[in-house]
Design brief:
single chain; 142 residues; alpha+beta; two-stranded antiparallel sheet; two-stranded antiparallel ribbon; 5 helices; 13% strand
Length: 142
């Protein structure tokens, strides 16, 4: 596992407050706010407990550590799973000496997961509103 993620400041904004504070923002401005929250350690505690996943191709064995859910902003009881552009995600990964997930890793993680939640990707409307911050909470709740 990479560098330690800072402790969450008890006065940090909750997930629902973060969404409300960014409801009218998009693009680079919103992603800068997302990055700042992660760099400050504003994530739920359950994301700090990485799980071991082992994979083999019959000859080679590999073990890696994964978060128990996708990156989220907020507290243990009030958080929001956070879509972001890949550059923001890569910045977070680099800061904490982690790697971005690959398709192979996603398949291994799914295979080893104790709790499997069916993926529910963004759905209609397939228009410019897909990038709206209001869609984040809809997607999180699904």
């Amino acid at each position: 596992m990479g560098a330690l993620i800072p402790d969450r400041d008890p006065s940090a904004v909750s997930g629902s407050t973060f969404i409300q504070n960014n409801i009218n923002l998009s693009g680079a401005t919103r992603d800068a706010n997302i990055l700042n929250e992660f760099l400050a350690g504003n994530i739920p505690d359950f994301l700090r407990n990485f799980c071991e996943v082992s994979a083999t191709d019959g000859t080679n064995n590999l073990t890696y550590m994964v978060m128990t859910d996708v990156l989220s902003v907020g507290s243990e009881t009030d958080f929001c799973r956070m879509p972001m552009n890949p550059h923001t995600a890569q910045s977070i990964a680099e800061k904490y000496d982690c790697s971005m997930i690959t398709k192979k890793m996603a398949d291994d993680i799914w295979k080893h997961a104790v709790n499997k939640v069916e993926p529910l990707p963004y759905g209609p409307p397939y228009d410019n509103s897909m990038g709206d911050t209001s869609r984040f909470i809809i997607h999180h709740n699904r």
